[in-house]
Specification:
- This protein is 42% helix and 35% strand.
- It is of the alpha+beta class and 120 residues long.
- The protein has one domain.
- A five-stranded mixed sheet has the order 1-5-4-3-2, with helices on one face.
- The protein is rod-shaped, with a radius of gyration of 24 Å.
- The protein starts with a helix and ends with a strand.
């Protein structure tokens, strides 16, 4: 009787450990994915800062672009002139998205970037 009880308790403990391991692995995958999205969005912001931005036309106050990285991360960039105390800067929003089972995971970063004046 004691042997059967010990085997039963061992099996319950084993199932609990496996369930905990799966939850930890799932949380780690989600954390890694969000870190990858954050790095992709930060890299896009750095690229835009390094290349310099031109103020969008008055007729088209918002400029948008989309590109895909090698890791199938979709980067959507929205650029518009800063207003108020932010005039003279450009408001840049980068949304990094990646398809995962069950939908999309996305992360959004926003920054004000120095603006280059358009050359005539």
């Amino acid at each position: 009787m004691d042997v059967i009880l010990a085997i039963g308790l061992t099996m319950v403990l084993f199932v609990a450990v496996v369930a905990a391991y799966r939850q930890i692995a799932s949380a780690q995958r989600q954390y890694d994915l969000r870190a990858k999205l954050r790095l992709a969005a930060e890299g896009e912001l750095l690229r835009l800062r390094a290349s310099g931005l031109v103020v969008p036309d008055e007729d088209a106050p918002t400029s948008q672009s989309t590109r895909r990285t090698d890791d199938d991360v979709v980067l959507e960039t929205s650029i518009r002139p800063g207003d108020g105390v932010w005039s003279g800067l450009t408001h840049v929003t980068v949304v990094a998205r990646k398809r995962v089972p069950g939908g999309w995971t996305q992360l959004e970063l926003t920054a004000y970037v120095p603006t280059l004046e358009a050359q005539p």
